[in-house]
Amino acid sequence: MKEIFVEWSVCTQARGYVCDSPLDSMGSAEFAEGRMTSHEKAVAQRDIVCKKKVDLVTRWNAVESDMQARMINDNKAVLDRFLSLQTAKVEPARKLLAEGG
User: Fold this and answer.
1) Which terminus, N or C, of the chain has the lesser number of Cβ atoms within 10 Å?
2) 8 A C-beta contact, residue 26 and residue 20
3) Position 24 in a domain
4) Which among 69, 25, 58 has a CA at the least distance from the CA of 43?
5) Within a domain: residue 99?
6) In which domain of life is the source organism classified (predicted)?
7) Which residue range(s) make up the domain with 35?
8) Number of domains in the chain
C-alpha cells in the first residue's frame, strides 16, 4: 500500500500540496475548523485528481480486501467456533418467533 500512497503523494506534490498519504490529508489540522476556504477546495480537487490518476481507491480496496481475506483464513477455526456459538444462541429465539410466541 505504501507504493500507492507514494504515487498519490508525488502527484499532489506536483500540484503544489505536500502530504505523505491520503490518511494524513484527511486528518490535517489545517482544515479541521472553520468554514471551508478556497484553498481547502483547491486541495480537495487536487486530491481527487491524484486519486483518479493513480487509481488509489480501487488499488487500496484490493490491498485491504487481500489483507482481510488473509486474516479470515488465518483465524478460520476461531471464527467458525464463534459462528457455531452464535448460531446456538440465536436458534432458540428463532424457534420461539416461528411458533408465534
Assistant:
1) C
2) no
3) yes
4) 25
5) no
6) Bacteria
7) 2-54
8) 1
